[in-house]
Amino acid sequence: MAGFNHLFVPGPTNVPEAVRQAMNVAMEDMRAATFPELTLGLFAGLKQVFRNETGRVFIYPSSGTGAWESAITNTLSPGDRVLMSRFGQFSHLWVDMAERFGMDVDVTDVEWGTGVPVEIYAEKLAADKEHRIKAVFVTHNETATGVTSDVAGVRKALDAAGHPALLFVDGVSSIGSIDFRQEEWGVDCAVSGSQKGFMLPAGLGFLSVSQKALAAAKTAKHFRCYFSFDDMIRANDTGYFPYTPATQLLRGLRVSLDLIAGEGLDNIFARHHRLAEGVRKAVDAWGLKLCAKERKWHSDTVSAILVPEGIDSAEIVRHAYRKYNTALGVGLNKVAGKVFRIGHLGWLNEVMICGALSAAEMSLRDCGVKVTPGSGVGAALEHYRLSDRPAIAKAA
Length: 396
Ligand SMILES: Cc1ncc(COP(=O)(O)O)c(C=O)c1O
What we know:
Blueprint: E1 6-7, H1 17-23, H2 35-50, E2 56-60, H3 64-75, E3 81-86, H4 89-100, E4 104-109, H5 118-127, E5 133-139, E6 141-142, E7 147-148, H6 151-161, E8 166-170, E9 189-193, E10 205-209, H7 211-219, H8 229-236, H9 247-263, H10 265-286, E11 289-290, E12 302-306, H11 313-324, E13 326-327, E14 339-343, H12 350-366, H13 375-386, H14 391-395
Parallel strand pairs: 1-13, 3-4, 3-5, 5-8, 8-9
Antiparallel strand pairs: 2-10, 6-7, 9-10, 11-12, 12-14
Helix pairs in contact: 1-9, 2-9, 5-6, 10-12, 10-13, 11-12, 12-13
The structure holds pyridoxal-5'-phosphate.
């Protein structure tokens, strides 16, 4: 098909041209004397994105799932009690991983379309006088349902109970795109991956840890090898890795961190909010609903849009891909066939979003959903026309 394929799945996201070019380099010696000139700056740059001041960041040649595994195996022991909640495919998979590692998982199931049940966590933490709970898990942004949860609220619940459990956050589809403050919120293990807000291909798993998590790793009993903090620290401290790093991805990461620093994290968060609001205006104008039940759950990186009864959302996604060369996200697990998703994170702007909305609107109509032609796209256009862009983006 002529023209671009339009990528609007919630990861992998669009890779900026400058990042692509930075990765188009010859292979290099990862033991070269000059290699740390690249890598030490990457660790420092990642800490800024995670807003981690006193801890450190590990970069694994894995996807985000590897960083989940690293967090669990380095800081916890088999049989440890952990507090988790499940409200979408990714929170489900993290629970599944913890169970497979033999953790004693106290899981609260809540309705898909809602998020981490902070009040229930608060009650359980307050009741746990013997401090049997060793870690509390938060999926910051549930990519399957387009729900953002309140990490700071969970921190408050831990503090109110005077509870020493570690706080784990899955920020795969939030960190670098939505406000996240590791140091301020006392997050001990924050997980992300290269292919979403970091605007890179998949292939790097990031785990940003606190000093408390590093201390926990000294006594934790899970077996670990590939993801071992100790092995990583020994090599990383001098700018090297315990095994072959993905050098081209690291070259790309240098440029993506520069782009993030250049735009400024707060401007990036504001841009994502503005773009997401345009999508939400479109959904309203179509007369459809988000899977996220209330405004407080609305995600600024992905919208999961419910389709009317009797319509298969997977067909809308298939059709948009075949006929309009546009990749939208399918519904996963419990919401398969019920929602389609628009990823609005990473390297994108208003007009790109309007492209996604155009393809979605045409596909909705082609698949029998009665939406007024131009309604969603028009609502988004007016929102973008009339609302302010973040200051620095405006000046650029
Ligand atoms: C919230 C969330 N957590 C975890 C993952 C898994 O990450 P990966 O596919 O990079 O292993 C994803 C992937 O989309 C995700 O969206």
